[in-house]
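Q: Joint fold for the lines below.
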Amino acid sequence: MSLHRFCLAGATFGLLIAAMQGRVMAFPVEGDQTALPVNTELNEDALDRPREVFRSELTGRKSYLVNLGNLAFSSPSILGGVARQANMSCGTCHVNGAGNPKFFMPKMSTRPGNFDTTGPLFNPRADNGLLDPVRIPSLRGVRYLAPYGADGRMASLHDFVRNVIVNEFAGPEPSPEIVDAIVSYLQDIDFLPNPSLGPGGRLAGKISESERRGEALFAKPFPHDPNKSCAGCHVPSGAFVDHKQHDVGSGGLFKTPTLRNADFNAPYFHDGRFDTYGQVVAHFDSVFALGLTAQDRKDLVAYLTAVGDGTLPYEHDGAGASLKEINDFATVLNTAIPASDKDVVALAVDTIGGELRELTEQYPDRKNTSVSGGEQERSSARAALKEVVLLLRRIDIAVGEGRTADAATDFRNYRYLMAAAVPSLLAGAEPWSLFNPVVHDQHYGALRQVMQSKHLSQ
Amino acid sequence: MKRVALCLVSFVLANGLCQASAAALDVAAERHRPYMIEGIGSALAGARDLRERVAAKDLAGAKKAWLSARAGWERSEVFTTGFVPELDALIDAWPNADSGFHAIEAKLFGAGTTDVESDADELVKHLDELHGKLRGMTLTPQGLLDGTARLAYEVGESKADGGESRISGTSLDDMRNNVAGIDFAYRTIFAEALEAADSKLDQSVRGRIEQLKKIVAAPDLPHVDVRALRQASEELVVALQAASVKMGLHRPTLEAQSR
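A: Joint structure:
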């Protein structure tokens, strides 16, 4: 194993440990008064979030349409019914355009990381009467991955997005501009770079012997069906997909999933039945009678791990990351305010305001017993965030009343505050915020302790 | 020269108006005092009843008493955060407070135990202390406007996780009582002054409060239109910010002690 790979493996292990600790500390939706089933886990308190890489940022800046799409993707208001009430958006499942392996919803999931898009909760009319959840896929590189849906039933990403909004989540009919924008955003999300992959999807650089052997096995024809091989469907030169559906003994025809960045896409298979590459390889060995030795299996896993790698898969979810995303969202107002586009302004104000309110809650108020110190800093951070939420609301009101010039003035003030004062105040309060792992664990530990008192009585 | 004179006249008139308005608001703020005394008095009576029910090991009665005490408290939040921050933090601390409403809530409604005697004693003590302070407390219109705006903003916060009183399932009641407190504070203290200064803005504030009342009249928390709630909450605070200038007050703060 190269030093680079060793470091990556170490980092992955560290993240795994962090994720496991996160699971211990995670705080699922609770209480009898929520719109979602009790014990729903949205993983919204995660300290690390998948890193999102945009194609357009490699050469310049994201376009208006991409930012609008990202905004809509993060907005509960484009969905309907329970999802909207529960403050869920596309981004709840596809965190930063990746998946959400810890997402779990009773009655809609059979295990963390899958979800029944034809279940009874979000749109009863879409309910097929079966608990048949599918894995929440990562959307990285989705422009290479048609057809869409786990069963590949839709050729068009545009149609797929509309179907998710209207049929699966009971949202109102979206405007063509919003669907186009979401598609533009999705098509802009790149795979994480993987230095181990060279031209044609071949392993490159310093590769271990096991990975080399695995690469050869991957391309080797199946002993009982020489027309087939792993690489025949997971075409290395084509993002490791063939754009077709196959029956691989998992209960029907399902499209070939990509292997790129798949190290971070567990669970695997259409329903997320497998947690590890080892289980996946064992399944294929059994179904296709491949006759793999124990070493063969290890080699294939080593190869898959090398192919599925990606640089810096996660980033710490601090105020900086939140503000960057919020600032990207707010760029749509540069266009929407002068155009008096009430719908886009309302969408932006609702979504950005919601994000800012969530960010405010990262700085516990003075009545929170799980945090001590930094009271003035937390108070200043909260006050600043509330001020910008209200500035956005003023913009919404002004555009609604046709006072575009007033809206533009308020937006200038908003940008001014968001450029320096707000980041500075948030940075000052960060040690006492939920972005600090110690404070985070104290806070969620306290909440869990309180909620457990309820469970003990039941 | 004529322009300077006009400016001076304008300044004197404006200043006089502000002083008149300030004096009127001081008087109006006093009108809020009986409501505060009644609200905290109700919370105190509920807490005393809670203490008795707990001593009798009457869980159902204790829960009922807690709810009663809580309602009085939530109606009073317009002033508690700003005027008595230390007592506010002791009485309403969360999530795993040693004492106060939420500590008792977790045990009564969560664990289903009446083992809250010392917590109930503490709650009575703190509410009693607060109640005793109310008659002599200086009530400033600015402080009450700050509290009204803060609470109006807070009402719009997401309750997707079940809200503040998620163990007892009474977060919606909290919100209704908060809105009732906002409504009463506005009508008793500010409405008259704002109507005189800017009747359209007064109507705007009243309209937003009515909207909030309608939204929190939903049958249960999952049926509260959260987006409409947030919009109405923020529009109300924006209107109160505009109102502050018209009434000769400072722009309201959104966090206690952040002025």
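Q: Anything notable?
A: Chain B touches chain A through 52 residues (CB under 8 Å). The longest helix of chain B spans residues 2-55.
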